[in-house]
What we know:
Elements: E1 2-3, E2 13-14, H1 26-38, E3 46-50, H2 56-63, E4 68-72, H3 76-96, E5 104-108, H4 112-122, E6 128-133, H5 141-151, E7 155-166, E8 178-186, E9 189-196
Parallel strand pairs: 3-4, 3-6, 4-5, 6-7
Antiparallel strand pairs: 1-2, 7-9, 8-9
EC number: 2.1.1.171
Protein name: 16S rRNA (Guanine(966)-N(2))-methyltransferase RsmD
Pfam families: Cons_hypoth95 (PF03602)
Amino acid sequence: MTxxxxxxxxxxxLEVPRSGTRPTSERVREAVFSTLxxxxxxxxxxxxxxxxxxxxxxxxxxxxxxxxxxxxxxxAQAAQVAARNARTVLAACGRSASDGNQPTAEVxxxxxxxxxxxxxxxxxxxxxxxxxxxxxxxxxxxxxAANLAALVPLLDPDAVVLVExxxxxxxxxxxxxxxxxxxxxxxxxxxxxxxxxx
Length: 198
C-alpha cells in the first residue's frame, strides 16, 4: 500500500500503477521530506516530480504545503493514475485550506527530456524550487545527465535537486550549474542531493 504520509492529505491511500513503476518507500519519502523541511523547502514551494509514476513524491509535497507540483510521466497508465491521485490529494488539501490558498498539481504525459526541452523552448526562466527525479533503475547515465543539464536553467537560484537511484548505480554526472550537496543510503536506495552552483 502507498499512502500520503503527512500533511493535509495524510494517511490518504494512493493508487499505484499495476506495472512499470517502483514506488518510493515510506521510509525514503519520510527522509526526503525531513531533509526538505530542515531546509525550509516545502511550504509554498514549486515542485517538479520527474519520472513521477503514481505521483507520490510530488503529491506528498502538496499535502505538506507546497504551492504546486508538476508530475511528469510518459507511460499512459501511470500518468492516468497520477492524475487520479492528484485530484484526490487536491480535494483533501482544499478541504483543509483555511487561508484560501489552494495548491495545484498538473500531470504532463511525456518523456522527461521532451518535457524539459519544451519548457526551455517556451520560456527558459526559473520556475521550480525543488526537482525530484526517481528514474527507472535501468535508465542510462547519459540520459540522466541530459535530464539534469536541461533542468538547470529552469530552477530557482535557491533550488535543490534530488536523484533517487539504486545503491548499485554510480553517482549522477552533475552538469555545470549543479553542485553535489549530500548522499544518503537507505537499504537498496541511494539519494543524491545537489544545489545550484554558486
